[in-house]
């Protein structure tokens, strides 16, 4: 057994995803002796298995979808999708799942990196177990930051664990397109990848237990995507509960509560993500097995540790339960860095968290849905404007302009909004600002909206509320 190494840096950052890497680098820039720890790749889920490679697949598939709109509108086009160039671009973008560039980027700023599994072993103490079985015990003088992210979660469906099912990670790394794919879960990940693979030539079936796709968003968003995905050839099934999974002779079969059976070559489980608090020593923080996230205050300091720990401990990103988004981790990293360095500034606020589902059309949303606002007892008013005469124009007319803008107001300000359409994520920017800054509806109504743009629909919807 190798000897245990003991060190006392200024700060330890556990988890070097987008938020952790940014925070650790900024602390190093400030002159602190920082140790960053990760058992996987520096950069985290986003650049290797999430945001970046998935959007390469989505963009490639969008090209196919756009080309198929040419007949009847701009001439004749025949499209023959090919997956290998897409897989090749994914490997290039991820450096073939090698993080040397990212590690060098961090160490070049003065930080130190340890590859290994880290966990809290006592208040103010982090123990790292490396691949060589060497233990490094770190007792930082100033700060510990938990930025450990989340991991794909699989439901406790009988038979599932014994099968070679995929999560987003295995799907992103795939070099060949199977003939057919089953997807359990009708959330953002399943729908983005499902639509992309269908357009690239794979027969896709989506099975969702809830009554609609994108169950956490406005029902209009789920309805729109059900129509569009079905028109693309995706087989969509909502309100279907999977009760068993079988894998025989290279084929998966889903056994469902009402007797439905679905079969395919591959199975993607896209039912959400989990935070493995037990792996990082959540018990040291006083968190029980039922805890779903690390509780933090408005400065991202872990609740209950001030005064009882010899060093400050903060948490950022997925592990805080405030939203599993790269932009959330980066936002929280900024708040935590300022807190650690004593720089003050604005505390964390979560009333205007933006989120985008990168399907075609895109579904952008910010703040509260209508249902959430009503559940909070707010004085809810809504307005909605379609981007085109009807979503049937998208499906049958192939103009690609289906979508809508829906606004949720409480009194004279917006508390939520959805922009669904070809540029839904881009239109969301102005809506995020309106919700975040609590811009009066009268001020929005007095704004001049450029014509003809998709965001002009925001002005039309605002006029209904003014």
From TrEMBL:
Cofactors, names only: FAD
Annotated cofactor note: Binds 1 FAD per subunit.
Recorded GO MF terms: flavin adenine dinucleotide binding; NAD(P)H dehydrogenase (quinone) activity
Disulfide bonds: 46-51
Residues reported in the UniProt entry to bind FAD: 55, 148-150, 318
Binding site for NAD(+): 185-192, 208, 272
Keywords (A to Z) from UniProt: FAD, Flavoprotein, NAD, Nucleotide-binding, Pyruvate
A Pfam family hit: Pyr_redox_2
Segments forming domain FAD/NAD(P)-binding: 10-333
All copies of domain Pyridine nucleotide-disulphide oxidoreductase dimerisation, residue ranges: 353-461
Database matches in InterPro entries: FAD/NAD-bd_sf, FAD/NAD-binding_dom, FAD/NAD-linked_Rdtase_dimer_sf, Pyr_nuc-diS_OxRdtase, Pyr_nucl-diS_OxRdtase_dimer
Family: Belongs to the class-I pyridine nucleotide-disulfide oxidoreductase family.
Protein name according to UniProt: Pyruvate/2-oxoglutarate dehydrogenase complex, dihydrolipoamide dehydrogenase (E3) component
Source organism of the structure: Streptacidiphilus jiangxiensis
């Amino acid at each position: 057994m190798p000897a245990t190494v003991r060190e006392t840096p200024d700060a330890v950052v556990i988890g070097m995803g987008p938020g952790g890497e940014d925070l650790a680098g900024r602390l190093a820039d400030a002159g602190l002796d920082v140790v960053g720890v990760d058992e996987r790749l520096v950069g985290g889920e986003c650049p290797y298995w999430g945001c970046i490679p998935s959007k390469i697949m989505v963009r490639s598939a969008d090209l196919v979808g756009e080309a198929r709109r040419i007949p009847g509108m701009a001439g004749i086009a025949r499209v023959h999708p090919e997956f290998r160039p897409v897989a090749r671009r994914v490997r290039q973008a991820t450096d073939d799942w090698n993080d040397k560039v990212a590690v060098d980027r961090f160490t070049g700023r003065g930080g130190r990196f340890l590859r290994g599994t880290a966990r809290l072993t006592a208040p103010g103490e982090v123990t790292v177990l490396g691949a060589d079985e060497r233990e490094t015990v770190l007792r930082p003088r100033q700060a510990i930051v938990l930025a450990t992210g989340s991991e794909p979660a699989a439901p406790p469906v009988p038979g599932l664990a014994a099968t070679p099912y995929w999560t987003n990670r295995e799907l992103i790394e795939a070099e060949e397109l199977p003939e057919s794919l089953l997807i359990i879960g009708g959330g953002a990940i399943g729908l983005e990848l499902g639509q992309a693979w269908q357009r690239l030539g794979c027969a896709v079936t989506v099975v969702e237990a809830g009554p609609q796709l994108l169950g956490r968003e406005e029902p209009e968003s789920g309805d729109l995507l059900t129509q569009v995905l079905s028109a693309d050839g995706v087989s969509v099934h909502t309100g279907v509960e999977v009760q068993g999974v079988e894998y025989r002779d290279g084929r998966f079969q889903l056994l469902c509560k009402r007797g439905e059976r679905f079969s395919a070559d591959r199975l993607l489980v896209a039912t959400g993500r989990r935070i493995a608090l037990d792996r990082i020593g959540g018990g040291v923080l006083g968190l029980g097995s039922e805890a779903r996230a690390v509780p933090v205050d408005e400065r991202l300091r872990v609740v209950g540790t001030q005064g009882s720990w010899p060093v400050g401990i903060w948490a950022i990103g997925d592990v805080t339960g405030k939203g599993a988004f790269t932009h959330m981790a980066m936002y929280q990293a900024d708040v935590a860095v300022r807190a650690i360095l004593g720089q003050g500034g604005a505390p964390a606020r979560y009333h205007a968290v933006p989120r985008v589902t990168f399907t075609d059309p895109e579904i952008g949303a910010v703040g509260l849905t209508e249902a959430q606002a009503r559940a909070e007892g707010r004085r809810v008013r809504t307005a909605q404007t379609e981007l085109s005469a009807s979503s049937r124009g998208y499906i049958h007319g192939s103009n690609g302009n289906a979508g809508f803008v829906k606004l949720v107001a409480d009194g004279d300000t917006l508390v939520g909004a959805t922009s669904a359409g070809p540029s839904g994520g881009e239109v969301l920017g102005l809506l995020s600002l309106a919700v975040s800054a609590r811009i009066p509806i009268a001020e929005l109504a007095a704004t001049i909206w450029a014509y003809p743009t998709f965001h002009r629909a925001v002005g039309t919807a605002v006029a209904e509320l003014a």
